[in-house]
Amino acid sequence: MKKLLALLMALVLCATVFAGCAAKEESSSQSGSQSQSDSSSASTPAGGEKTDFIVGLDVSFPPMGFMSEDNEIVGFDIDMARAVAEKLGLELKLQPIEWSAKDMELNNGNIDCIWNGMTITEERQENMLLLRPYMANNQFIVVAKDSAIKTKSDLAGKIVAVQTDSSGEEALNDDPIKDEVAEVVSMADYVSALNDLKIGRIDAVVIDEVVARYYVEKEPDNFTIIEESLKKEQYAVGFKKGNTEFAQKVQDAFDELVEDGTAAEISSKWFGKDIVLK
């Protein structure tokens, strides 16, 4: 009888322990679910409204967007994007990207748009939703100040650098002179290309006019421009295909900045005159 009673008490004790563990596990699971729910609701604004404007850019593309000596991202496009964000009541977030990965960054939703002196090309028109052109540009050739290269035809037999996946690369590929150059070097950014030009590792760089003039003005003893355009083009802001509603809000805000004179002021700050397309 004593053995039977002890066995019954042991069974009751085990049942109590298991019940307690199950209740604790259920409580922990509910707490974890609640925690995840709270975290999710904290990261999502009430009503699902957008609160930020994430702009993707190459931070070595002055004067459109680049790192200042104070390690801050500045430039014409930055000032315009900030003014647009203020009009829309959004927080501007600047996201540096590899230029060759811009389509992936855009399509993956890591950024809202590419706003960085981006040239309108047929391929980009097919792959992106582009806003109205806002600035004209040329693809020029920059050489060392003491270079013997004076015209485009002088590139024959020379080493020429381009930025990877840039309109400058496309312009060179479309020009007959491409078949005469000794080598085309594809580089990640213009800063690296111009540094290589300065030390004589390459002979020329195909580069956007706005960037070329910025560097020539900054370092007149090192660089000069061949005033012979490889290609005329225009800049536009690019959004992911289908993001029509938000893209239109940005376009409307940009147009307001043109109308009220803000765009002209920002342009004069960076270029000394108003070069924004109306």
UniProtKB/TrEMBL annotation:
Provide this UniProt record's keywords sorted from A to Z. Signal
SUPFAM superfamilies according to UniProt: Periplasmic binding protein-like II
Q: Does the keyword Signal apply?
A: yes
Q: What is its main location?
A: other
Q: Which Pfam families match?
A: SBP_bac_3 (PF00497)
Region annotated Disordered, chain positions: 27-48
Q: Which Gene3D superfamilies match?
A: Periplasmic binding protein-like II (3.40.190.10)
Q: Which residues form the signal peptide?
A: 1-19
Q: Where in the cell is it found?
A: Cell envelope
Q: Name one GO cellular component term.
A: cell envelope
InterPro entries in the record: SBP_3_CS (IPR018313), Solute-binding_3/MltF_N (IPR001638)
Compositional bias (Low complexity) spans?
28-43
Enumerate the spans annotated as Solute-binding protein family 3/N-terminal domain.
52-274
Q: Which domain of life is it from?
A: Bacteria
Q: Which PANTHER family match?
A: ABC TRANSPORTER EXTRACELLULAR-BINDING PROTEIN YCKB-RELATED, MEMBRANE-BOUND LYTIC MUREIN TRANSGLYCOSYLASE F
* Entry's family note: Belongs to the bacterial solute-binding protein 3 family.
Protein's UniProt name:
Amino acid ABC transporter substrate-binding protein
Species per Swiss-Prot/TrEMBL record: Zongyangia hominis
